[in-house]
Amino acid sequence: MEYKPKEIKEEVNISKIHPLANLTYLLGTVIGVSAAVYIALGFAVNLVVPHVPEETEKAIGDASIASAYVILEGEPIENDPRLSHLQELLDSLQESEDKIPLTLHLLKSEIVNAAAISGGHVLVTTSFLDEVKSENELAFVLAHELGHLKHRDGLRGLGRALVINVGWSLIFGTAGGDSGVVGTVLNLSDLNYSRSQESAADLYGLKAVIRHYGHGGHSLDLFKRLQKEETKFKISEYFHSHPLSENRIKKLEEIAEKNGWDMKGEKTALPGVFSK
Ligand SMILES: [Zn+2]
After folding, report:
1. Angle at 231 between CA 143 and CA 66, to 5 degrees
2. How far apart are the CA of 15 and the centre of ligand 1, in A?
3. Which stretches of the chain are DSSP H helices?
4. Residue 225, Cβ neighbours under 10 Å: how many?
5. What would the pLDDT profile of 42-63 be if each residue is shown by its tens digit?
6. pLDDT per residue over 60-78, tens digit each?
7. How far is the centre of ligand 1, averaged over its atoms, from the C-alpha of 188 (Å)?
8. What residue spans define the domains of the chain?
């Protein structure tokens, strides 16, 4: 039998599918899988957060406090007479059965803001204190920040980085990445919470103030005033990290009315050291 070499087609190694279609398919798969992992990690955040030990949360917060100073453009003040009053007021707003150690930081800063960092850190700026006219409104802002700490919003803000970190430590027995990386993520997110986190912190804040004073009167005065001045750049800093709309105040007043909470009690003056 005569040997007939098989005719070799030039495109033998080339897929019949157009190369671009192939690439699109490959890219689509990669993007699809990445998106699924990303979404799954997002869901995992809420599962992981309640199980993060308090010491880990504190270590993460402590590692990022210096960056929080930078973000608030502030220098910590150690010898201000207002500091002990602020710490005392903050401590008194906690429920007695569920206390966590709290550290109040007073920052000399032009920025009007208050913030909470994981591990029990609450930061207020001197410019923020300049806007405060009664203890009730100061208490509400401190209690709002306390709400973020109680709800562990800082950890939630870490989000996917936290899940990857915890997953890594479960698999390899050590914390994945260094706390510096975690700290960076924390600082980008910790001062910008979601609207639902803000509402939850507001509700915690109002309840805490009512527990403390027996009423919620004057606790929202500062918000109402700041809202009117929202166009001023200086003031808008607070709303950048705590988006405030008329809805937020209205929502709190509606909740108070529905629950029959007293929102008309007397104003408590700030201690003398607060007056300029
Ligand atoms: Zn907030």
Report:
1. 50
2. 56
3. 19-48, 54-71, 82-92, 126-131, 135-150, 153-158, 160-172, 179-190, 195-213, 221-228, 233-241, 246-259
4. 14
5. 777 777 788 888 888 888 888 8
6. 888 888 888 988 889 999 9
7. 14
8. 18-51, 53-274
Q: What is the DSSP letter of 243?
A: -
Instruction: Quickly tell me which residue has 């007043």 as its tokens.
Output: 253
- Give the SS3 label for residue 68: helix
Statement: the pTM of the whole predicted model exceeds 0.85: no
Q: What residues contact 146, with CB distance under 8 A and at least 6 apart?
A: 90, 93, 94, 102, 116, 122, 204, 205, 208
Q: What distance in Å separates the CA atoms of residue 85 and residue 218, rounded to the nearest whole number? A: 19
Q: Please, is 174 exposed, middle or buried when counting C-beta atoms within 10 Å of its C-beta (0-12, 13-18, 19+)?
A: exposed
Q: What is the largest CA-CA distance in the chain?
A: 114
Cβ contact 90:205 at 8 Å: no
Q: Tell me the two tokens of residue 53.
A: 């030990």
Distance from Cα 5 to the centre of ligand 1, integer Å? 78
Alpha-carbon distances of 218 from 133, 198, 213, 242, 268, rounded to whole Å: 10, 20, 11, 19, 9
User: Ligand 1 centroid vs 145 CA: distance in angstroms?
Assistant: 6
pLDDT in tens, 112-138: 888 898 889 999 999 999 989 999 999
